[in-house]
Amino acid sequence: MNILISGGSGFIGQALSQYLQGDRNTSNHSSTQNTSANITWLTRDINQAHPDSVSLMSYEQLKTTEATFDVIINLAGAGIADKRWSDERKQLLMQSRLKPTQALLDYIERIANKPKLLLSGSAVGWYGAQGDKVLDETSGFVDDFAHQICDSWEEQASLATQFGVPVALVRTGIVIHPKGGMIAKLLTPFKMGVGGQLGSGQQIMSWISLQDWVRAAILVIDEQLNQTPKAVDNMKIYNFTSTTPVSNRQFTKQLGDWLNRPTLMTLPEWLLKLMFGEMATLLIDGQKVLPTALLDLGFEFKHQTIQQALHQQI
After folding, report:
1. Number of folded domains in the chain?
2. Parent domain of 29
3. CA separation (Å) from 264 to 113, 185, 197?
4. CATH number reported for the structural domain that contains residue 294 in this entry
5. Biggest alpha carbon distance in the chain?
6. 3-class secondary-structure state, position 168
7. What is the SS3 assignment for 89?
């Protein structure tokens, strides 16, 4: 199986690539786990560091290549929580998602042998800030910048269906791993004993372990590839979140317990807004997002608690 990944060098992309190339001890699911996949990362830097087992393709090469791929996985995009949201940053966040997606659409339109699936990233930010209201793939949204960026990304990716390529839109929550993502950014202050809750601590955090994210992606790919042509869904939305969202206070306590450090500090809401401006909504406004579509596929989570996710091996 040949798989093209945009954003392959990122936190999730690297773990997914490693798994697809043979580290299959974290899943019970079928077809892609039986043979090691050939992975190509789509990149703007053809000289970037990468595993020897991974091939690189530039966006310029994508314009003319005759190479074909069974599955395309679209994860490219600047980190939404990495910097304060200035007007310039907002533009970068949007274009860093839309430009790679458009490049993939141009390739899909041009190539005769179409991929069997485009799995395209998004985030639970699509739902906007809705507090502790229970949300699933059928729920509506609150219009804010997080929604706008996710909605634009999803809308563009969905255009692949016009060329006969099914699309799986993946709305990801906070991805938990002991050595990467959000946890990596929190380790230093928490180890120093100055970690603590954000604002009221009541805001709900929808999360998923990195291992479960990878396993869920494999299941979605397998489900699509194993369907008969007449049964193939043109587009499907999946929430990649655990079934046990937690409050920020609960998350803080579990992270402190894991590190054996106190978590007595509180960053008040007014200070977070002063420090981060509009981006503070990611920290102080919650979303309670459940993975109904994954559960309907029979997916079983390995990590139901933050503590389990912090002890995962992948």
Report:
1. 1
2. 2-310
3. 58, 18, 8
4. 3.40.50.720
5. 59
6. strand
7. helix
Give the C-alpha separation, 118 to 262, whole Å: 44
What is the C-alpha separation between 276 and 68, in angstroms, rounded? 43
Quote the CA–CA distance of 121 and 172 in Å, as a whole number: 7
Q: CA torsion, points 32, 137, 77, 242, in degrees to nearest 10?
A: -70
**What's this model's pTM, rounded to 2 decimal places?**
0.92
Query: Are the C-beta atoms of 241 and 124 separated by less than 8 Å?
Result: yes
Tens-binned pLDDT, residue by residue, of the chain (314 aa): 999 999 999 999 999 999 998 754 444 444 444 557 899 999 998 888 888 889 999 999 999 999 999 999 999 999 998 889 999 999 999 999 999 999 999 999 999 999 999 999 999 999 999 989 999 999 999 999 999 999 999 999 999 999 999 999 999 999 999 888 888 888 888 888 888 899 999 999 999 999 999 999 999 999 988 876 655 568 999 999 999 999 999 999 999 999 999 998 888 898 889 888 988 888 889 899 999 999 999 999 999 999 999 988 66
Contact, 120 vs 168, CB < 8 A?
A: yes
